[in-house]
Specification:
3 domains, 35% helix, 715 residues, six-stranded antiparallel β-sheet, alpha+beta, Penicillin binding protein transpeptidase fold, elongated
Length: 715
Amino acid sequence: MPNSARVFARLAAIVLVGGLALGVCFAALVPGARQIATSHHYTGTVSSLGDLSQPTLVYDATGAQIGKLGVQDREPVELDEVPQILVNAVIDTEDKTFWKNPGVDVSGVSRAFVENITEGKISQGGSTITQQLVKNRILGNKQDLQRKAKELILAYRLNDKYSKREILKQYLNTVYFGQGSYGVKAATRRFFLAPDPSAPLGVRGKALNELSVGEAALLAGVIRNPEGDNPFVHAADAFKRRADVLKTMVTRHHITQEQADEANREGLPTVKPSSELRPENAWAERAQQVLFTDPRLGATPKERRDKVLQGGLKVYTTKDPQMQLLADQAVANGLRGAKAGFGAALVAMDPNTGYVKAMADNRPYEVAKFNLATDGAGRQVGSSFKVTTLGTVLQNGYSRNDQIDGGAPCRVPGFPGQSTNAGGEGEGGIMTIQAAATDSVNCAFVRMSTSVGMDKVIDMAQKMGMRPSVAGRQPLNEWKVLTFTLGVISVTPLEMANIASTIGGGGVHHDPVFVQKVVDQDGKVVFDETGRPGTRVLDPDVANCEVSILHGPITSGTAAGKGIPGRDAWGKTGTNDRQISSAFIGGTPNLVSFVWHGNPDVDEPGAGFGAGVPNTIWRNFMIPATQGLPDASFPSPGAACDAPGRFIDPVAGRTDKPATPPPPPPTQPAPPDTILIPIPQPAPAPAPAPAPAPTQPAVGPPQPNPGGGGGPGPG
């Protein structure tokens, strides 16, 4: 007899079982006869059940799990891990003849099949555990007679191919329990909580071996109708369904009546888990964003999403948990006494690798759902952005001894508007690049940027870490303004930390790395960023010269005495117009960071100067964060850094006109907390700047809030 005929005969026998009269069956078959006639020719085989959708797990740099990404929260388990009370509850409820039937329960199918054929559609159940597994893993949820017939055939074949224990294991790992919970392990963890003092909130999800009789019965009961019997939404229905399961378990002698009574007195779970598996913290969210755009995980967006959300990957981020803790604490403590509504963000990076070690936003991620440190177009950062102009002029052959007119107001032919200094008109005068950086003189940097060429400054800012195209940011063709060097174009803390990384990393730019390694579910490494080379954008001597110059602000300038004790560090303050925001950028040879401070929601004065809250946060993070790192020093700047000075013309650039000799040094001693910068010979050292005064933000168009220089600020 041909196989197809044999299968059809077996199906016919199923319909006849149960004492159904042949005439009744024939009459009932008429509405669905065509579908039955076609389905008996089905020749599908069970080659494999296919891979289960598994979430991707996210880890920090120490290997501790910090997040989960996916569409189905599932943790596959072996059958031996499932307690017998849960196994009994599921089998008693879903398929009493499971251990003996051939994949199909003949009597159950007979009753349901006649009703379904009469209706011409699926209106009755009767599916065994094996049939449910076929539906969930092979055929899908389409409801019609032809698919039902295929389900029966494949259930027989599945039963022949796999052992009962394997079928049950696969079923328990596949079945949906509601509230985004797939498989018994995830459902147990998400539905039921156990006290745990070591857990963040003092509770954790239960393990399988901690299930009570009532909890096992509740899980078994919701399989039939996960939404209708959802204990978090339909408590009364869930109570009744659990009681029915317990009654069946008593009847089948798997529990006593006393156990059932005790289980019925148990309350239902009340802490409703999310029905969607979304990133729970900023690091998991960032890892997901990075992976969704990485072509190494797929050629198309859909391929990448499927791989990340269903592929069971292991994603190892660069998050340093200790540094992250320090960053969170520094931000929280630094905002004590800050104006109401004002916040802060910090990003720290390893300048030698580009690894992002910590990122902090004072607002809880679960509330804001927006990471101020990395997301969006950013905010104005004031004079901390001057480091890009400084890098540009040094890369183009300027010396720290070159002189520029820092007098205010400053206007440059070819650029509309003007800028000024903190002290207004009359402040400034002729000064060296070193002095201009130490005291953050706006007009000096404005003229420096136009002297070297604004296009070059804009290009260098991008090479060092500023993205050219970001939604919500001024387009690139609007960056060429007189006050660009003063930080009037919005930029994120991440980009500023990346710029700091380029400076601190000897002039080598590394794209920020959040994900260090990805491993697939078979243990194969998808990619590993270890040793990824960067791109040189500043010559080594130029980068070292910039670091040397930027020692000035934290030794004798706008943030005098506010460096890192015992460490070779550099830094630069930044204050936006009207003190709407303030910032600090700086670092050491093996750790750099950037801090932004202001009201993240509205433009509101009150952020103070960069040497205030931002520098406080920066120091409170950097001092402890660098304690476990090697005590390295930056290389000495090359000879070009200290070449004899030339005069800088804001239009013509660096001229052949020698710089004028500086005045003799003062005879009075420097203040105790001030360190005068030794300027190497042969060039004479510039005169130490007078007591630092706050640098005035720019006031010219086209930006409504053009940025200004950092100042020492009160306190």
